[in-house]
Each structure stands twice: as C-alpha cells, then as structure tokens.
Write a structure and sequence with these properties.
There is one protein chain. Helix 2 (175-192) runs antiparallel to helix 3 (196-206) and helix 3 runs antiparallel to helix 4 (217-227). The protein is of the alpha+beta class and 383 residues long. The protein contains 7 helices and 27 strands. The protein has 3 domains: 1-155, no CATH class; 160-227; 233-381, no CATH class.
C-alpha cells in the first residue's frame, strides 16, 4: 500500500526506472518522471530502495534527491510516458479515455469507488507502471484523499471529431462498440458545448432498441435546442434584467442586494457570523442570517450594508420570481428550460439537472432540480 496520509516525500532530480531488485538488472517495474515524489526506505552505494506514489516498492539509481519541487524536467525524459503539453511546461499528464471511470480509494478493483472520472479528464502523473493492469496515483499530493485508476484507461486528449470518426467506423457493424462510442460522443459534445444536437441525435439513433434509464434523450435534445438560442452579451444582460428576479417568503419580497436587517428580523431569521464551507475567495460576506432552508449574506459596498440570497431550498413555501414565472418546490424542470433555456448553461455530464444563469462578469445563479422539480438555488462568485 501507498504511504500514510500526510507524509512528506523527497523528489527525484532525474527521470528513471524503478527496478524490482537491487543491482545491475533489467527487470523493470516502472518508470518515474523528473521530480517524482519518492519515500526512501533503504540505500546502497549505487541505489536507493524507494516507494513511489502508487505504492510500488523497488530500486532507483542514486541521484540528488530534493526536498521541494522546482517545476523542472531532466534531459531525455520520455514524452510517451510523461507528456507535458504542447509548450512542454505542464505537469506530466494524460487524459481519461472511457466514460464514468471508477476512481478507487486504493490500487485494487476491490477497493471502494469514491467517484467517477469524466471522459477526457486531465490526470497528472509522476510514475507509470510497466506491467499489465498497473495502477497510478491521481489523488492529492500528500495522500490525505487518495485516488487511483489503472494506467490502461489513459491516453492522449480527445476531440469531438476524433470520437465521431471512431463512432462512424463501427456504426451498424458492431452494436457493442457502437453503443460505447456513441456514449463517448454524447459526453464529449456536452463538454465541448458544440455539435451537441448532432451527437444527441446519433445517440438516439443508436439506442433505439436499447433501454437506458440513465438518459432522457428527448429532454436533452430539448435542452440543446434552447441552449443554442443564447443571445450575445448585451442582449443577454438586457433579458435577465427585464425578468426582475426576486424571492418571496412569508409574503415578503426579497430583492438581491437590497435585503435589510429589518426584513430579516421581521422574518425571524437567526443572525450568524460565519457559515461553514463558504468560499474563501471571491466573495467574503461580513455576516449571515439563516433558517433551515435559507441563507442571506450581508456585505458592505460603498458604505452601504445590504444582503443577498446566498442559498435557498424550496421546502417551506419559498419561491423565486423570474418574469411571469413563480418558481417553488412544485415548479417543473421542463417549464424552466422552455422559459429560460436561452439564458442557461450547464455542466450536464458532471452535474445533470443543475443550471447556471450568468450574473454579470463574476457571478452565477445556480438552480438545481431533483425528480423534475425545483430543489435549490445558490449564488456563486468567481475567485
């Protein structure tokens, strides 16, 4: 197993091979990059016995070991294992080649799956096993939140055109491969936010005789049609402003950036100084008011203190008003898409049924639906 959480490694100064045994041998276990983190277990005059990031233990040739990383690579580092981008300055990396790849807590298929990696997700690597079905470490640097995947599922960066070519090559010839490729095509189209309607139509054609309860393709096609209508920046801002977005609770209207302390006291909300897990950058409110379903954040701007709805769940009659639409816990997702689709963006594959409306240059309004009904609202500001 890999090192204990929080341990501090040292770093290689040269790329090289990890040998299974000590001495002059050719039995290669893996290959490590320049500045790969290693844990020294023993040493001889010519070699170190080390543990590398995925937990493999073997021997490396002696070299200067550094206490910190300096963002350098050594001469001859093989790009086929440690690709550093077109400019050559990025971390060594490859890209996930399959949809919904299980990321494990330990380097074994019996270990707990803690998340699913997205197709084409960039993965930084510092050590590549040279044996069949080897694992690589992709978690945080000090293994406090370990993550592992198998190297065989990584490759070069994917594009829509490349996957489309692979899909058309097997369409109508091999059903299993066709379904796998059209699934990748749908996913990459959502990520790139182009060719979306074509990819979804291909998905529908290939899955005509196949039941797939995870995908409501007709709804996705509707969403794609609406997203394609997005206006330019000036027209977008004008449309959003005309909707006069505000919130209603206990018959009190709450307007973003204009909420007062007096309103909060009238609504019998609790005043608190801090809320756990609020962003540490971008927007740093002075204090909050809260109920079990609502948080209102207060800040000072040009000498005036006022509040904005920070988060809201729609469980006790809370509602948000957009134009002529009153949206509460019974509000239908399809109606939302039909009315406001041209203002929306979404990370559909990683966060389905979560929609973003741009709030100026640095913010988002986030609406989330569950089981077809409005579930929550949140505002966010970029760091």
């Amino acid at each position: 197993m890999a090192q204990s959480p929080g341990q501090r490694p040292v770093y290689t100064s040269e790329w090289g091979y990890l040998f299974r045994e000590s001495g002059k041998n050719k039995d290669l276990l893996g290959i490590f990059s320049t500045e790969a983190p290693v844990y020294v277990l023993d040493s001889t005059q010519t070699q170190y016995k080390v543990q590398v990031s995925n937990g493999d233990i073997g021997f490396i040739d002696r070299q200067p070991l550094q206490k910190s990383m300096r963002g350098k690579k050594s001469a001859g580092e093989p790009a086929q294992y440690f690709y550093r981008g077109t400019e050559g300055h990025q971390c060594p990396h490859f890209y996930v080649q399959v949809s919904e790849l299980r990321v494990r807590k330990a380097p074994t298929t019996e270990s707990t799956a803690i998340r699913r990696a997205a197709l084409n997700e960039l993965v930084c690597i510092d050590y590549v096993p040279l044996y069949e079905d080897g694992w690589i470490y992709i978690g945080d640097h000090f293994h406090e939140n370990p993550e592992y995947i198998q190297m065989k599922y990584l490759g070069t960066g994917l594009t829509y055109d490349r996957i489309l070519k692979d899909y058309l090559a097997v369409k109508g010839k091999n059903k299993e491969k066709e379904l796998a490729q059209v699934g990748r095509l749908r996913e990459i189209a959502w990520q790139e936010d182009k060719n979306l309607k074509q990819a979804l139509q291909y998905w529908k054609e290939s899955n005509t005789s196949v039941e797939n309860p995870k995908v409501d393709i007709d709804f996705e096609l509707l969403l794609a049609d609406q997203l394609a209508k997005k206006p330019g920046t000036e027209a977008y801002e004008k449309k959003l402003k005309a909707l006069n977005m505000h919130f209603v609770w206990k018959e009190t209207k709450l307007f973003d950036g204009k909420i007062t302390d007096a309103q909060m006291k009238q609504l019998e909300m609790q005043k608190v100084k801090d809320i756990p897990n609020t962003p540490e950058c971008g927007w740093d409110p002075q204090y909050f008011y809260r109920t079990s379903d609502m948080m209102v954040a207060f800040e000072e701007y040009k000498g005036k203190v006022s509040g904005s709805i920070y988060k809201m769940s729609f469980n006790n009659g809370e509602a948000v008003i957009l134009g002529n639409e009153r949206m509460d816990s019974n509000y239908n997702e399809k109606d939302f898409v039909n009315h406001f689709g041209e203002l929306l963006s979404t990370r559909w594959i990683s966060s389905p049924h979560e929609y973003h409306i741009q709030n100026g240059d640095a913010g988002l309004f986030i609406f989330t639906f569950k089981e077809g009904k409005l579930f929550s609202y949140e505002c966010m500001y970029y760091c």
